[in-house]
């Protein structure tokens, strides 16, 4: 009768043990250390030859990391992340300042147009700044709120008069 073998491992290859549990060293029985195993797979022999000792071809290294070393590594990583967050925060502040500066320049252009023409419309602002109707409406509303313009007429056919 046919028997199923482990299809993932090659014939004559021992299965690697899995060790996911933290191990305790003899001198520090109260402090757990996390053990990391690195294992290379055995070399396969050419057809017709055999390996005499399959375990001799596997190389296993064990690295122990103490909790203090882990804490130190986390603190260094945390410090680096804080530096990165601080850098990003400063970039955001600079970007917001630049956006506000550009917006103020556009509002000043609208004020100059209103001073020149005395009465302006949404379409005038759209053409001047090459912006959408909604953006022009927001800019005009901001200038009305600041007291530079007064809205005259219905909201649908609004005109804006410059206030001296």
Q: Characteristics of this structure?
A:
single chain; 164 residues; alpha+beta; Arc Repressor Mutant, subunit A; 2 domains; three-stranded antiparallel β-sheet; 3 helices; 45% helix; disordered N terminus
SSE blueprint:
Blueprint: E1 34-39, E2 60-65, H1 67-117, E3 119-121, H2 122-129, H3 133-146, E4 149-152, E5 159-162
Antiparallel strand pairs: 1-2, 3-5, 4-5
Helix pairs in contact: 2-3
How is this structure best described in words?
By secondary structure, the protein is α+β, with helices and mostly antiparallel strands. The chain folds into 2 domains: 1-71, no CATH class; 95-162, Arc Repressor Mutant, subunit A (Orthogonal Bundle), CATH 1.10.10. Helices cover 45% and strands 14% of the residues. It is built from 3 helices and 5 strands, in the order E-E-H-E-H-H-E-E. The chain has helices at 67-117, 122-129, 133-146; strands spanning 34-39, 60-65, 119-121, 149-152, 159-162. The strands form 2 sheets. The protein has a 3-stranded antiparallel sheet with strand order 3-5-4. A hairpin with a 6-residue loop joins strand 4 (149-152) and strand 5 (159-162). Helix 2 crosses helix 3. The N and C termini lie far apart (103 Å).
Beta content comes to 5-15%
Largest sheet: 3 strands, antiparallel
The residue ranges in which pLDDT falls below 50 over 5 or more consecutive positions are 3-10, 23-29, 31-45
Taking the alpha carbons of the first and last residues, their distance comes to: 103 Å
Helix content: 40-55%
Would you count the extended β strands for me?
5
What is the number of helical segments per DSSP (H or I, 4+ residues)? 3
**Radius of gyration using CA atoms only:** 37 Å
How do the helices and strands follow one another from N- to C-terminus?
Answer: EEHEHHEE
| CA-based shape | rod-shaped
User: Biggest sheet: strands side by side, in what order?
Assistant: 3-5-4
Count of spatially separate domains: 2
| Structural class label | alpha+beta
